[in-house]
Each structure stands twice: as C-alpha cells, then as structure tokens.
Write a structure and sequence with these properties.
This protein is an alpha+beta fold and 546 residues long. It is built from 22 helices and eight strands. The longest helix has 56 residues.
Length: 546
Amino acid sequence: MSTLSESLRESGASLQRVFRNPGLRRLNIAFAGSNMGNWAFSVAISIYAYQHGGPTVLGVVGVIRYVSMALFGPLTSTLGDKFARKRVMVSSDLIRAVVIGGATVIVATNGPALVVYVLATLSAIAGTAFRPAQAALLPALANDPAELTAANAASSTIESVGFFAGPAIAALLLAVANMPTVFAINAASFVWSASFVIGLRAESKPASAEHEDSGFVGETMRGFRTIAGERDLRLLVSLFFGQTVIAGASLVFIVAVALPLLHLGRPGVGLLEAMTGIGGVVGGFVALGLAHRNRPSFFFGVGAILWGAPLLLLAAWPALAAAIAMMLLIGAGNSLIDINGFTVLQRIVPDAVMARVFGAVESLLIAGMALGALLMPLLINTVGLRSGLAILGAVVTAGSLLGFGGLNRIDRTIHAPLKLALITGNEILAPLSETVQEELARALVEVKVPAGEVVITEGAPGDRFYLIESGTALVTRGDAEVNRLGPGDAFGEIALLRDVPRQATVRAVEDLTLYALEREVFLGAVTGHSDANRLANVVVSRFLSN
C-alpha cells in the first residue's frame, strides 16, 4: 500500500511540475482542447457518413483519411524542421479551424456530402504537421529529462482522457443539439489550441535542411534515412511497428473475442474497448511515477511486452477475466510505449531532423496498423482466433525480449553523454535545458590540432564553435596577441552569431584536443534560448571591446 501511495505521490509531483512550466502548461492545455474536439468530430463524421451513404461510404471515408495521413505525414513534417515549430503548429490549427468551419456551414445548409468528406480529409492532412512539430518542440520547453518524460506522460494521459471525453461530448451535443454544432465545436477547439500555442516563448527557426542540396523529396525522406542509418532508431521503430501491428489487429480481434469466442454480445465490444482506455490512463500515471528513474528505453521495452504477452494469456485461457486483463494490460502498455518511446526519440534524434523523424515514425505506425488489420482476418481464417493471437503475441513478445540489450545500451548512452561536462561548463551553453545540452554533447565532433597549427584564421568564414578539452591556444588579431585559451575555454562564436568573418586567428601553442559544434547545431540551440542568446552576446561584446 505504501508503494502505491508513493507511486501516486510521484505521479502527482511529476504532473504538477509539468504544469508549473509555462510552456508545457500552454502546450498541454492547447492539446487537451483540440484532442477532445477531434474525438468528438470523429464520432460526428462517422455518423454523418453512415447516414449519407451507409457502411460502405463510412469505410471508404475512413480509409481515405488514414491513407492520406500516412502519405502526407512525411511531407508536412518537413515543415517542422524548416520553419519555427510554433508557427507550424499555429498554422496547422488555423487551417483546420477554417476547413472544419467550412464543413460546418455545408452540413448546416444541407450541402453536398462529398465536399464534407473532402474537407474532413484536408483537415486530417493539415493535422499531420502539428504532432511532429509538437514532439520536436518539447525538448526545448522541458528543463530536464525527467520533465520531458513527464510532459510526454501528460500528453498521453490527455489523449486517453480525450478518447472518452470526446465521444461523450459528441453524444451529448447530438442529443441536445445537432450535427453542425459538433462540427463547430471541433473548429472552435482548433482556435482554442492556436490561442495557447501562439503564446509560447519566442523560438528561432530550427537548425534545418536549409543547407541541404538534396531537394524537397530528399529533405522529406531524411526522416526515413535517419531511422535506417542508426541502429538505435531501427530498434525503437521496429518495436513501435510491432506494437502497431497488434493495434491494427485489435480492430478485428476485439470483435472476434467479444462475439464468437466469449459470446458477450455487442456490449462486450464496448466493454473491452473501455478497458483499453482505462489501462491507458493507469499506464500514464505509472509512467509519470517512473519519470525520475531516467530509464525510458527499458520501460519502453516493458510496454512492448505488455502488447504481446497478454495475447498469449487469452489464447491459453479464453475467459472474460483474461480478456479484461488483456485489454487493461494493452492499454497500460500503450501509454508506456508512447510516453517513453517519444522521450527516447526526443533525446537521441538530432534537432535538425527531429520533426521529419517523427513524421516518418507516424507514417510507419499507420502502415503497421493497416498490416495488422489485414493480417488478423487471415490468421483467423487459416489457423483460428486463439492460434492467431498466440502467433502475434509470441512474435512481438520474443522481439521485445531480444531487444532489451539494445534498449539498455540506449539508456546508458542518453543517461550521461560523453563530454557533457564541456557543454554544461560553458558560459554560453550552461543556461540551456538538460535535454538540449545532452543533444549538443552527442553532436560534438573531436578535433586534434598539433602544436603550431592554426585552428581558425582571421577573415575566414565561420563554420564551427570550438570547446577546448586539453592544450593551450593563442588568440591574435593582426599582429597583436589578444588572449590565451586553455581547457574549458571556447572560441568561434562571434562569426556564427553575427554572421561575419572570423574576428581573430587561433593557433595551437601546444597540442590541442578540441570538440566542435557545427554552425547549424550551435545556432539552433543558442538563438532559440533567450538566456543563452543574451550571454552569447555578452561574450561577443566583451571580445569586440578589447
């Protein structure tokens, strides 16, 4: 009992900490409004499509919306790496508000149903820009990894609550008002979201693909290439994909379990769906309580197992208690996967491609759900429901267990990046949040300079910021000695911050070991943080006044 009380206290403390952070508070309040509005709209558009065309039209509209999201997600996510993420999110909200507002007018005036379906699809496409930008912005708003995990947990909990509240709101409004009212509420929810997001602290344009020469298609595919090129990302995304295959299969097996297997009738389908939502809320609070442990990859793996192992339980024991336990565990596993998986991605993916990686992940997850929805009927028709559940559960559970070695390696990497002390000890970089500092530490490039060689030359273009780990360097302007630098000192920021040629020559007096940050990485971190930017300008002014 004391352990449970302690866990609840830790969860509450983590949640309070998130909402004490002005940026995270605004982001979550914005998301709460638009998420509930979206769920209400999903119910309304489904009823509207069914009333105007029956189950066939309902199915076609749903497929088109999801396929459009999968195809356009990688394209729209590129915007979050090319422009200020706050601006992308506000634009996404306002576009959706206008589009759904238009659909509201058409529904209210009995206009063409086809136009309503087109507008609903356009709204879904516009929404694909929001979530990657939101996920990529969170690390800049969170002060440390525990707060980042708690922020993801808060978002996941809000999403789980919205799963209940949105349809309930829609049902109430349809009972006391009409269909256009639900549409209008959804449009208003996007205005609500934009009004909170626009008040976030100023954010610079991310260090992005503006220097890439691969063209728009190449930039769009950068998220997929980043995932394919990093073994840690491949592991995470493959486990994510396995989970969504079961999620897609659950659209089929929940009905099959409730009706032919357990003979629960139609209410049984709703019961099992509700258990998933309840488990998701519980899992969200568990993740909040675990945020301080700083082992997000490990708990991500636990979440993956909770998607696979419960299927084995029901396959072996086809009873109502087992079905309820399965859905509760799957719901909890879903929260653990989403919260910790997003946290890990935010901590290991470079900021310059983060939105595109999240866009690629979203697209792959939708594909996984489609595969699961196609695979489950095939398994039922060939080997039967219980054997099909056993096969899926065994594959995902085994894959998750095999992945724990890699997940533990990821936790060791993100817990204490090599050379982090160089970042935290620097005057300019010290004010940055811990998550951003970790990202910069992972982006450092080692540079060895023998005694007597020049590191940077006065008048040359600037491309890097340097931190000295060992050795001594001489700084000269013209023929005059300006300064001598040693371990812990840094140079090269003036040309980057002021976009001017190098203001001095730096030569190694003795062998130097340097660690460099590329121009885009340095500027993306410093200019996006007011205190770091202010201190950087103080350092620049101090040097130029000498």
